[in-house]
Design goal:
alpha/beta, Rossmann fold, six-stranded parallel β-sheet, about 50% helix, globular
Length: about 375
């Protein structure tokens, strides 16, 4: 039986890994998967050797406190896979964790696939050298990546984005509102301060205060905030107890996509959520706050090479979603940006139309294309599949 090692480190990678696993099983029959995955990958049959949450850390300096544990986990995986080599290793995103492991395993003769290109086109472009050493096949999910990588010697295939296939071209806000128990006629804003505790600590209170600022000017608004974990829900509930006024706010356990589909407008942290908001055709305002020292180093070294931080804006090639970063992400500034969109229905319609066109471009049957590329690599390595 074919044995594939696969490692994801966060919720978005869990969904991507599961979609690829599902398609590989459909094409190849029985496949044994082991590595690191969350609930979705485990439901597809991945034997997770450690809890995925232990790998979910971000930021240059935020990682330092978790570095000993991360290194222990990676060493354990390296020793396991070198002692009992899998037929293939797939690293799903998480480049700082996966690429070092992929380089060692590839050196030992194990074929390696990396699913989701690191943002080398955006910052730290020197990492391309690492990609060339570590990866037999790069599966790129955005169309502008492949040319950049292949011109620099990385074997890259554009496969489209699984979320673009999974999310319908037309979303149904009425159905989403019924599902969440929201009023059909209300104006609803979804608040998505992040899926990690660090993000929520930096942005959760800011988002709640932005909602309060906006509510004072548009009293009929309702809000929904999906909590990615129980710990995040506790954090948000604690913040709510210290607010001056009660907010008409619904907290949900997960269900971020339903919250976005139910909303007229989205306030979100930069990250995968901006792509999901684009795919459900919801205009958005994007905020982000890094740990101050991380941000200072990024600015000092001029590590960022792109004009926008939100993937929705990168795909559009222009700033359809206002971006407010670091100190600019104040409650009033976020509230004003949201209010500006609410008061401009024509602009909202223009944004929804642009997002629909991008969605069609990303809709590639990506899980099938990714599986085909993986199977081609296996055939090149002698497997009769």
């Amino acid at each position: 039986m074919l044995r594939i090692a696969i490692v994801a480190a966060e919720l978005s990678g869990d969904f991507l890994g599961a979609a690829l696993m599902r398609t590989l099983k459909a094409r190849l029959g029985q496949v044994r998967f082991e590595g690191v995955g969350g609930q979705v990958m485990q439901a597809e049959g991945c034997h997770s050797l450690v809890p995925m949450e232990r790998l979910s850390v971000m930021g240059l300096f935020e990682v330092l406190g978790h570095l000993p544990e991360l290194l222990r986990i990676r060493k354990g995986l390296r020793e396991r896979f070198l002692a009992d080599p899998p037929d293939l290793y797939i690293g799903v995103d998480a480049p700082d964790f996966n690429l070092g492991l992929e380089r060692v395993l590839r050196g030992a003769g194990i074929p390696t696939v990396h699913y989701v290109s690191p943002t080398v086109w955006a910052w730290r472009q020197g990492r391309v050298k690492t990609l060339r050493r570590a990866v037999d096949l790069m599966l790129s999910i955005f169309p502008f990546e492949t040319d950049f990588l292949t011109r620099r010697g990385v074997n890259a295939r554009y496969v489209g984005h699984p979320l673009a296939d999974e999310i319908p071209l037309e979303s149904d806000p009425g159905a989403a509102r019924r599902l969440l128990g929201l009023e059909a006629e209300a104006q609803v804003i979804a608040l998505l301060p992040g899926s990690r505790m660090g993000e929520v600590r930096r942005l959760g209170r800011v988002f709640l205060e932005a909602a309060d600022w906006l509510l004072q000017r548009r009293p009929g608004l309702s809000f929904v905030l999906p909590c990615a974990s129980g710990r995040i829900r506790v954090q948000i509930e604690a913040e709510l107890t210290t607010m001056d006024r009660a907010l008409p706010l619904l907290l949900t356990d997960g269900r971020a996509r339903d919250a976005m589909a139910a909303a007229d407008l989205v306030l979100t942290a930069s990250g995968t959520a901006t792509l999901e908001a684009l795919l459900v055709k919801r205009p958005m305002v994007v905020a982000y706050r890094l740990q101050p020292l991380t941000y200072w180093v990024v600015r000092l070294l001029r590590l960022v090479k792109v004009p926008h931080v939100a993937m929705a804006n990168l795909l559009a090639g222009r700033e359809l979603a206002p971006e407010l970063l670091q100190g600019a992400a104040t409650p009033e500034a976020l509230g004003r940006a949201l209010l500006g969109l609410l008061e401009d229905p024509a602009r909202m319609a223009e944004i929804r139309s642009a997002y629909a066109e991008i969605h069609r471009r990303l809709r590639q049957g990506s899980a099938g294309k990714a599986a085909e590329a993986v199977i081609e690599l296996l055939r090149e390595r002698g497997w009769d599949v």
